[in-house]
From TrEMBL:
The keyword Glycosyltransferase does not apply. The lineage of its organism: Eukaryota, Metazoa, Chordata, Craniata, Vertebrata. InterPro entries: Adhesion/Biosynth-related, EMI_domain, FAS1_dom_sf, FAS1_domain. Binds to type I, II, and IV collagens. One of its GO terms (cellular component) is extracellular matrix. This is Transforming growth factor-beta-induced protein ig-h3. It comes from Bos taurus. Residues 90-223, 227-358, 362-485, 489-619 form the FAS1 domain.
Length: 670
């Protein structure tokens, strides 16, 4: 006995010749010489001679298993001894069938005139022997036809299970074909990564039982010859009438009748009937969408149902990934038990009948993409705004659709302004987020240019960041966004002048000579103190600030970052260099943005040359914090605030705010 580690796990291996058994190390203490661990499926007769990869599951298709122990092939128990110490003498193939428990196969062999003498005579053979349960599960009419003509039908059936040389499991490679002893017909072998081996989709139960004249492998089904390719099966089956027409229209029949090993998840007529006629007719009339649809039903390799004991991600010819799994006796696709008939074998693969169509994104309209996404509220807005034609036609577009949570407090009213805003959520090209780059500009149907911002952990278009993977449809791509997008409406100075909250800031900027800077092209992040922020400063501090244009410019430059940082691009902490030279510490926690630990009152007011974030306090550079505080405003500060109302057109035209400014000016005179 030889022990060793099983790669990548805490397991031990016992090796006997070519046979190696593996089990977790907490089972080692109970195992004895030549004992094999077996997983039994609770409530069934199914057994799995377990390898390392399956130990972790401890379940088969979601059902629990129990571990039992049996003598390994070729060994038996001895009274009073531990384990299975006695090696059995090798017998001929006929007798070995009895040793492995394939007594029904042995019985049927006996009924034929020729086969038993062959199995007991000279030569070297391999027999894939069906278990007793496999024979009993055959339909009665099939079994009757075999046993009523033992020297032709039964003999031929048994010879199809035989190969005229010894073939051990280490020779059974995935996708290989063995030549049987019935008319040299092929037997298809698949050896899967999880260790399971299938023979014409029958699972190998017990492998490598040596005989004097060959080897016996026990399998869980009676296998039959395979003569038709996938295309021929499609043409024969009545339930594939629509599929037949679709394959012919797409030109895929050449692939399905050629060499290779594929899995076809074949949609029945019922599957096609479940989708709206309009959708079906659109796809059938569009060669590219039709080919994508059909390719999404073809897996790149043959996958028998018995090989699936847990979830697997399998790639289709279309390039998508399907989650193929199982639940009890049911196979599932993407979690749905939609397979109605499994393991119909073809010469070039295997077919599973499915009763639901698997439409890939690449064959869908934007409307259809959105139906499977968290953007239904936004799509309703586009529909109500009369923009449906853009979402269902053959226009190359990228739709920036805010996710449903954006509208938890309600949706905007449908009017001309909203319609224009929604048009600016449609980009005049079919994009893929992986090709977007920082500083790129995108043209919208609403006539605006939107900018792309790439940050370490986010990808944003203006103030809105992508919240989910792209969905690329036939003509349009869907980007799920984390908020409504607000296109820029002017320069930073235009934004500040147009908002009454910033009239004092505008006056200060103009006094400091920074107007031209914030009007020209650039990339600025402005933390804009509101009027209340200035009014909250102690009078002495405000007096000192406003009495010195150079000092004022220095303070204001500290409020301006030298790149555009929207709220969605802020991680736990970003240090943003200011025009003044010192760095601003910008952070985001629980959806609250802070700068130098001061909360931001409003984020992401977009400008053509930057972004404005409203703040409720005036920030002080680290090296320039005032040491003294006076009680009175200097004359120069009073002059600046006298000019504020004149500088701000918005304030001049605001009936509500004019008295507020009057009272402020009166207070500063006394």
């Amino acid at each position: 006995m030889k022990t060793g580690e099983c790669a990548g796990s805490h397991t031990h291996t016992v090796q006997m010749g070519k046979l190696s058994l593996e089990w977790p190390h907490h089972f080692v203490t109970v195992l004895h010489p030549n004992v094999c661990a077996v997983q039994k499926l609770i409530g069934t007769n199914k057994k799995y001679f377990t390898n390392c990869k399956q130990w972790y599951q401890r379940k088969i298709c979601g059902k629990s298993t129990v571990i039992s122990y049996e003598c390994c092939p070729g060994y038996e128990k001895v009274p009073g001894e531990k384990g299975c110490p006695a090696a059995l003498p090798l017998s001929n193939l006929y007798e070995t069938l009895g040793v492995v428990g394939a007594t029904t196969t042995q019985l049927y062999t006996d009924r034929t005139e020729k086969l038993r003498p062959e199995m007991e005579g000279p030569g070297s053979f391999t027999i894939f022997a069906p278990s007793n349960e496999a024979w009993s599960s055959l339909p009665a009419e099939v079994l009757d036809s075999l046993v009523s003509n033992v020297n032709i039908e039964l003999l031929n059936a048994l010879r199809y299970h035989m190969v005229d040389r010894r073939v051990l499991t280490d020779e059974l490679k995935h996708g290989m074909a063995l030549t049987s002893m019935y008319q040299n017909s092929n037997i298809q072998i698949h050896h899967y990564p999880n260790g399971i081996v299938t023979v014409n989709c029958a699972r190998l139960l017990k492998a490598d039982h040596h005989a004097t004249n060959g080897v016996v492998h026990l399998i869980d089904k009676v296998i039959s010859t395979v003569t038709n390719n996938i295309q021929q099966i499609i043409e024969i089956e009545d339930t594939f009438e629509t599929l037949r027409a679709a394959v012919a229209a797409s030109g895929l029949n050449t692939l399905l009748e050629g060499d290779g090993q594929y899995t076809l998840l074949a949609p029945t007529n019922e599957a096609f009937e479940k989708i709206p006629a309009e959708t079906l007719n659109r796809i059938l009339g569009d060669p590219e969408a039709l080919r994508d649809l059909l390719n999404n039903h073809i897996l790149k390799s043959a996958m028998c149902a018995e090989a699936i004991v847990a979830g697997l991600s399998l790639e289709t010819l279309e390039g998508t990934t399907l989650e193929v799994g199982c639940s009890g006796d049911m196979l599932t696709i993407n979690g749905k038990p939609i397979i109605s008939n499994k393991d119909v074998l073809a010469t070039n693969g295997v077919i599973h009948f499915i009763d639901e169509l698997l439409i890939p994104d690449s064959a869908k309209t934007l409307f259809e993409l959105a139906a499977d996404s968290d953007v239904s509220t936004a799509i309703d807005l586009f529909r109500q705004a009369g923009l449906s034609s853009h979402l269902s036609g053959n226009e190359r577009l990228t739709l920036l659709a805010p996710m449903n949570s954006v509208f938890k407090d309600g949706t905007p009213p449908i009017n001309a302004r909203t319609k224009n805003l929604l048009l600016n959520h449609m980009i005049k090209d079919q994009l893929a987020s992986k090709y977007l780059y920082h500083g790129q500009t995108l043209d919208t149907l609403g006539g605006r240019k939107l900018r792309v911002f790439v940050y370490r952990n986010s990808l944003c278009i203006e103030n809105s960041c992508i919240a989910a993977h792209d969905k690329r449809g036939r003509y349009g791509t869907l980007f799920t966004m984390d908020r409504m997008l607000t296109p820029p409406m002017g320069t930073v100075m235009d934004v500040l002048k147009g908002d009454n909250r910033f009239s004092m800031l505008v006056a200060a900027i103009q006094s400091a000579g920074l107007t031209e800077t914030l009007n020209r092209e650039g990339v600025y992040t402005v933390f804009a103190p509101t009027n209340e922020a200035f009014q909250a400063l102690p009078r002495g501090e405000l007096n000192k600030l406003m009495g010195n244009a150079k000092e004022l410019a220095n303070i204001l430059k500290y409020h301006v970052g030298d790149e555009i940082l929207v709220s969605g691009g802020i991680g736990a902490l970003v240090r943003l260099k200011s025009l003044q030279g010192d760095k601003l510490e910008v952070s985001s926690k629980n959806n609250v943005v802070s700068v130098n630990k001061e909360p931001v009152a409003e984020v992401d007011i977009m400008a053509t040359n930057g972004v404005v974030h409203a703040i409720s306090s005036v920030l002080q550079p680290p090296a320039n914090r005032p040491q003294e505080r006076g009680d009175e405003l200097a004359d120069s500060a009073l002059e600046i605030f006298k000019q504020a109302s004149a500088f701000s057109r918005a304030t001049q035209s605001s009936v509500k705010l004019a008295p507020v400014y009057q009272r402020l000016l009166e207070r500063m005179k006394h």
